[in-house]
Design brief:
This is Pseudouridine synthase. By secondary structure, the chain is α+β, with helices and mostly antiparallel strands. It is built from six helices and 18 strands. Strand 7 and strand 8 form a beta hairpin.
């Protein structure tokens, strides 16, 4: 079984090790894995990383095959695909299911459903989640089909190259603003987060606010990705999400009203700009049409 393969043509004289790490973006850890379990060729010949490259050389890297964790169970739950290519999958996550398995939700998660999809299309790979969403948050979730692609997206995120926007429902009008307030774990709680000087820096941009039924629909862009960041920051400014019982939101929806609406990035393999969008979910539209309380 063959794993993921990438090819590049060399433009200048450079040691093979440097080309692999600097030009191809292969981490030191992944390079060690390739040396032991994969293969590196230059112009069709097996080469060690000490080889000196010349302009015009073709470098081929074959990563070792991947397989899912032995305790990962495939699910038949259908998925709604927003975008797919040879290396990347974007799914519209519904509210009410976890992104990845846990003790409380061991099998029926989005990751289990994606594994089931991989099996149906004949893809042997581990599950690589690029961005996680809370159980009751809906919208865009990205999966890398290979560990190398996951690593490239991790580097992209560190450089703020993955732009994510969210839609959020609150009760009142909110002035567009940037919230720069550190977030840490609440005392005596495993899940709850709070704004605290001892926390990690967290930056949330509220880009727009528009009337939406009897409430307001916010457009939000994340600059950082802390746990519960939008939920904590909106409570911090006195406008908690509708339905967010943990952070003081009005019980006017059966889940907290947060939707991952889009993701934009430069594709690490093609260099193309990719914009992925998930439409406003049905419960948001129902809220707008029926007014304050859609739980009845």
């Amino acid at each position: 079984m063959q794993g993921f393969t990438i090819r590049r043509v060399v433009e200048k004289a450079i040691p093979l090790r440097d080309f692999l790490m600097q030009d191809m973006g292969i981490s030191r850890k992944m390079l060690t894995l390739v040396k032991h379990e994969g293969d590196i060729e230059v112009n069709g010949m097996h080469r060690t990383v000490r080889h000196e490259l010349e302009p015009g050389d073709e470098v081929i890297v074959r990563f070792p095959p991947e397989s899912p964790s032995l305790d990962m169970v495939a699910s038949e739950r259908p998925i709604r695909i927003l975008y797919e290519d040879d290396t990347l999958l974007a799914v519209d996550k519904p509210a009410g299911i976890a992104t990845i398995p846990s003790r409380l939700h061991p099998t029926d998660t989005l990751a289990n459903a994606v594994l089931g999809y991989y099996q149906r299309i004949g893809l042997s790979s581990a599950i690589h989640v690029i961005n996680r969403l809370d159980r009751d948050t809906s919208g865009v979730v990205l999966f890398a089909k290979y560990g190398f692609i996951h690593h490239r997206f991790s580097e992209l995120q560190k450089a703020n190259g993955l732009m994510r926007t969210y839609k959020a429902l609150v009760e009142e009008e909110v002035t567009p603003q940037t919230i720069d307030a550190p977030i840490g774990r609440a005392e005596n709680s495993i899940m709850e987060r709070v704004v605290t000087t001892e926390g990690q820096r967290a930056i949330t941009h509220i880009l727009a606010c528009q009337p939406f039924g009897s409430g307001s629909l916010l457009t939000i862009r994340l600059e950082t990705g802390r746990t519960h960041q939008i939920r904590v920051h909106l409570r911090h400014i006195g406008h908690p999400l509708i339905g967010d019982s943990m952070y003081g939101g009005a019980a006017r929806m059966p889940r907290h009203a947060l939707h991952s609406a889009s993701a934009r990035f430069i594709h690490p393999m093609t260099g193309d700009e990719i914009q992925i969008e998930a439409p406003i979910p049905e419960d948001f539209r129902t809220y707008k049409e029926r007014g304050w309380d859609i739980t009845q």
